[in-house]
Amino acid sequence: MTETTSGPARGSRAKGGKGSKGLRIERVHTTPGVHPYDEVTWEYRDVVMTNWRDGSINFEQRGVEFPAFWSVNAANIVTSKYFRGAVGTPQRENSLRQLIDRVVKTYRAAGEENGYFASPADAEIFEHELAYAVLHQIFSFNSPVWFNVGTTQPQQVSACFILSVDDSMESILDWYKEEGMIFKGGSGAGLNLSRIRSSKELLSSGGNASGPVSFMRGADASAGTIKSGGATRRAAKMVVLDVDHPDVEAFIETKVKEEEKIRALRDAGFDMDLGGDDITSVQYQNANNSVRVTDEFMKAVESGSKFALRGRMTGEVVDEVDAKSLFRKMAEAAHVCADPGIQYDDTINHWHTSPESGRITASNPCSEYMHLDNSSCNLASLNLMKFLQDDDEGNQSFDAARFAKVVELVITAMDISICFADFPTEKIGETTRAFRQLGIGYANLGALLMATGHAYDSDGGRALAGSITSLMTGVSYRRSAELASVVAPFDGYARNADAHNRVMRQHSDANAAAKRADDLDTPVWAAATEAWQDVLRLGKKNGFRNAQASVLAPTGTIGLMMDCDTTGVEPDLALVKFKKLVGGGSMQIVNNTVPKALKRLGYQAEQVEAIVEYIAEHGNVVNAPGLRPEHYDVFDCAMGERSISPMGHVRMMAAAQPFLSGAISKTVNMPASSTVEDVEEIYLQGWKLGTKALAVYVENSKVGQPLSAKRKEEKKAEAEPEKVIEYRPVRQRLPKGRPGITTSFTVGGAEGYMTANSYPDDGLGEVFLKMSKQGSTLAGMMDAFSIAVSVGLQYGVPLETYVSKFTNMRFEPAGMTDDPDVRMAQSIVDYIFRRLALDFLPFETRSALGIHSAGERQRHLETGSYEPSEEELDVEGLAQSAPKAETVKEAKEKAREEAKAEGVSETQAPAPAPGGAHNSTELMEMQLGLNADAPLCFSCGTKMRRAGSCYLCEGCGSTSGCS
């Protein structure tokens, strides 16, 4: 623990100091008399970033200086995103040293000016330790710090803002203006619209009010026109409405209706992708929506009782609705378009440290920051893999003592930043300086769990995550209490002292009650227990410097800066990663965490090499040589052959939530086969398990994003008449005699017949559907639909494309079927293509689409795997489709030579990255035959991936969120 000591008077109380004490800073990583920069090897690189769609150069800066151990991707992102000054001018930063010095020296100067340090020597140690931690990718501040600190522009350090709006036109117009200024600065904002009276209430003039949904339209249009920070990405925002607001149903349905519009316009040929030319015609697309529910409402859902919707001005009951029906509408909307998310109001305010100053009503766009209206939070995240250590005998441990020291250092720096920070509005500045909200968090949890041999969805994994989170927050509040003795508690503390200390006891009690699992988490729990005891003791004596200390943010761009394999609290995306090479080009490597995990699980070096080589070829661990099936779940990822169950994500959030001041930015991924009932269960369990907020995303539920690239290429081709060569698909008709299957079916009481005919060498070639009487409208439409699908199949459209597009389509008749393999269908079309998938697609393809037979589902219940046994596999067919051994061997040898030059271990079995892949997301799609429903990056055109509730581009570091 850092000590406090008496010292010479420094400044006045207005500067935040009592004038008699300062912090003694200990060295953790640095050496006296040696600057951290002098302990690493530096090299010069050229950073050239292109848009892969048209080959144009997005960014170019040559001769930039970075440590030799920094990856190409991290150096590229820091150079293009964070270096300040016009490119090509002497003022342009060209070294990581300059960037770190610009920020760290500003923090040191502000700390000295405001009385944080006991002596100039302590200030120097602080500067060196902070520089070392950034240089070695141990932690990173959020992006606004790197953008703004130490420059001539406003010193904005916060990424997250919460606004407020009242029921007056003046306040609503202020909302539009304040939001716009925040977007202009490159950040995001959230607010609750529940104070605005509903469309079912009267104005003082006697007419009906417009309602919040109407005003959302104007704010959405404003956000769509303002590009964040002058960059290419759009603004990020969160809109919240209370569940008892009379317009809550209209709020829930806003995005559902717009999603239908998107699909209709897309099918008509318009460019409706995120960032597309025609997407601006669609409303409400620039915000995440969330409904704020109460315990009263959730209990009414469980009991099936009525729930009152209340007027905003009088509080009187305007309408009564069936709670279960309203909850169902929320789940249906989220199932279709991922909005609205859900926020649990009573849980959030139960952990509120400053309730006497106002309730928590909203969150930032990614839902991790939750505190008072008109406030902000600056973030920083630690790289957890930097604290995993191996001893000489190969035993692993988490370095809790060093982790605590780094947390103390970072919290001190974050609090110092509030002393000099600028804010977008005067009200936000006043609230933030009065309550000094901080948001320390971490990244690389998924990698840490895998490396230590823990399944993400396991008691051991949750225990380790909980212990680290508890230690982080406990040490943060301990440091906050120490800072209070040096530079005074936050201004709002005296009024909220009882509540603040009550919340500290809640955290401490949760820490004491948490389950200990194994030798890795138990020492961390012990360190956390000690920290919380200090918090209770010091907090009662000194008060606290900060009303809030910790959150779990998406860690998008800064996660890439730290070379993290996983973001925030997320699991790994896939086992094989896409790696850029210094000399240009790319390769695929198996995650560095996989060999560590296998070693932890007790596998010998030869076994590790064989398993890693298998993963490199197949992208998953199923049937890897020598790998025991009980260890498969350690290597489960967010997507792929063995993806983590939705409840696995919720349980991990619940394990960390009691030890966080704020909340967790995370989307619960759900397979395409998920039902509305599944979404309801996730929302219900999220409440019961004590999470503060949840959002779900059902695979393939939104309009596919990558279509715009193809459409733009087609437009470009039309504009270039000199290219006269045109390739057209050729129709392959079926022979006169063809094998076929006729199936009778019933869906929701409606009967029909389907005949599916194949080519002699296998492969579906045509489909005939018969329903209703000949000459009826339905029969005619079925005939037309059959012809369209059949012609498409004969022109080479893959059956899996039809299956992915038409399954989960919802319309009547729907319901129970008489097919044991497909017990429920959302429509006739949904049933037909599920049946065709079962009859004609290989297991791997339809399993990736979430389609399994009754026998496979039974096998999953019994063994935990849908995979057919060896007796059931078509070994001969698989052998015919396998790649030639010589080709694979040659590719591997070539890749190993490149890996050796890059310093990558040969046991990782690298291979050249496929030509169509440009990052890990696209590589995973190609290997596993999946579609990650994510937008294309505005800057470089590559496929983005989820990071918390936002999207992140691995190629250039752009994000769709606020952090």
Describe this structure in words.
With 963 residues, the chain is an alpha+beta fold. The chain has 3 domains: 1-136, no CATH class; 153-572 and 644-701 and 946-963, Anaerobic Ribonucleotide-triphosphate Reductase Large Chain (Alpha-Beta Barrel); 741-871, no CATH class. Helices cover 41% and strands 15% of the residues. The strands form 9 sheets. Strands 5, 6, 7, 8, 9, 12, 13, 16, 19 and 20 form a 10-stranded mixed β-sheet that branches. Strands 17-18-26 form a 3-stranded antiparallel β-sheet. A hairpin with a 6-residue loop joins β10 (306-310) and β11 (317-322). α2 crosses α11 and α7 runs parallel beside α9. Mean pLDDT is 85; it is low at 1-20, 228-233, 704-720 and 871-892. Residues 1-11 have a biased composition (Low complexity). InterPro entries: RdRp_reductase_class-2, RNR_2_N, RNR_lg_C, RNR_NrdJ/NrdZ, TSCPD_dom. Residues 1-24, 855-919 are annotated as: Disordered.
Percentage of helical residues? Answer: 40-55%
The CATH class of the largest domain is identified as: Alpha Beta
Roughly how many Å is the radius of gyration?
Answer: 29 Å
| Class of secondary structure makeup | alpha+beta
Number of strands: 28
Strand content: 15-25%
Average residue pLDDT:
85
Q: Detail the poorly predicted runs.
A: 1-20, 228-233, 704-720, 871-892
CATH third-tier fold name of the largest domain: Anaerobic Ribonucleotide-triphosphate Reductase Large Chain
Estimate the global geometry from the Cα principal axes. globular
Outline the biggest β-sheet: 10 strands, mixed
Number of helices: 30
The CA-CA distance between the termini, in Å, is 30 Å
CATH architecture of the largest domain: Alpha-Beta Barrel
Keywords: Cobalamin, Cobalt, Disulfide bond, DNA synthesis, Nucleotide-binding, Oxidoreductase
Function: Catalyzes the reduction of ribonucleotides to deoxyribonucleotides. May function to provide a pool of deoxyribonucleotide precursors for DNA repair during oxygen limitation and/or for immediate growth after restoration of oxygen.
Family: Belongs to the ribonucleoside diphosphate reductase class-2 family.
Organism: Streptomyces daqingensis
